[in-house]
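User: I'm new to structure prediction. If I give you an amino acid sequence, what do you actually give back? Let's try with this one:
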Amino acid sequence: MPVIVLVGCGLAAACLCLTGVAAGAYFYLRGRQATSAEPTIEYVLDASPRMESPSSSGEPRIVVARGVLGEIVRTADPRLTAGLRVFGTGALPQGCEDTDLVVPLAASNQGEIEGSLGEVEAAPESDSAVAQAMVGAIRDMASTDGPHSIVVVTGGADLCNPEAGELIRQEAQRAGIELRLFVIGFEVPLDEVEAVKAFVELIPGATYTDAPQAAALRTALVEIQTEVNRMAVEAFEPVPGGRTGANACDHPYLPLRSGASWSYDSSEGGMTWNVTSAGGSAESASATMAFSMPEVTFTVNWICSSAGITSYDFGSISSSVFGEVVTLDIVNSSGSWLPPAESLVPGYSWSNDYTMVVSSPFEGASVELTTTTSESWSVGGMETVSVPAGTFDALRIDGTSTIEMSGFMGISVPPSTTSQTFWFAEGVGIVRYTSSSEGYSGHGDLTGYSVP
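Assistant: Good question. You get back a string of structure tokens that encode the predicted 3D arrangement of the chain. For your 452 residues, that looks like this:
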């Protein structure tokens, strides 16, 4: 179980959008599995008077630490049991015992922690009882099954107990838990850095990272939270490899099974997605999906492997009035469109790139347009989403797509960037999506689905 002490201081599926006269498809998702384990994380914030000193950005260190920690808490896996402890706020009259569990340990309480962080203020008078706060965190976690971790971000050394390291080691041993302790020094004065390192070195399994400014603090916490989230995924993983489908395209969070269908109410009108065929093995498979909108249909051919839904290719776009109006051909691509579910934990990020040639008949000839797309995606946290099809526990994926077009009558079109957010539910797929770019805003909500 992880404890983060601040001292001192997704695609998993596919999302589809048309660009110009063509269409692109992107799906994002991530899986959540049932478990009886209890990975636990406790965030501990240093709010002693020293945190009122200005940071390198000019803001008080307490303000910077609260903001960065709030960002990280939002990316925590909601299956984690989490809590928030502070010290040095003046809550207790005895400065060297001044530590308080502000948000008790509970599952899926990241929102409460983030809200409480905004109310933490540094005390005008108190001591910096770093070790006592960590002892309190260990005792908080002693009744949980784990795995257990502590992350400490400190603005300086412990000013109360010269034997801080030994005190923490003994408490962990007495509690009978195996701790992973991460200590981050946020703009620690040079004359205190060695003191912090010294007590960390006495604690088995503890590591120290120096964060001389907010960017370094953020980087260190992102890496730690990502590792903790992976521990949660391992604890909740019911099946080795995380894949339960009959073939590689039957992804836990985008089940491309023959006969599966999804209907959406979108800003473009009603839309239906149907998997017309799917087959293969766990190592290599393919699936074909038909997309229907008012008066327009098009197809996507997916390629899947043990690495996830690795690629897709478009067929054509057809109109009920004009027949086939556009053919789409992916000429090169890199990356995976949908990494394996076990990789899609909060904080995970990746990029995808592909080049597509769009061909359309025009006065007896074929007009071609080449589009180059670069995508960047990151996995957010789990959220409860209510749509016409029901209420789902869904993973949020945020990303951007930058598209460049050239070739049409020798004209190059300036790049355009679209921001997108998708929510994916286990065993269902995309339940909601939003997208926006200059002069455009779109959305879609799931109205019905069938996954055989």
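You can read the tokens as a compact description of the fold. Here is one thing that stands out. The chain has two domains: 34-236, 247-450.
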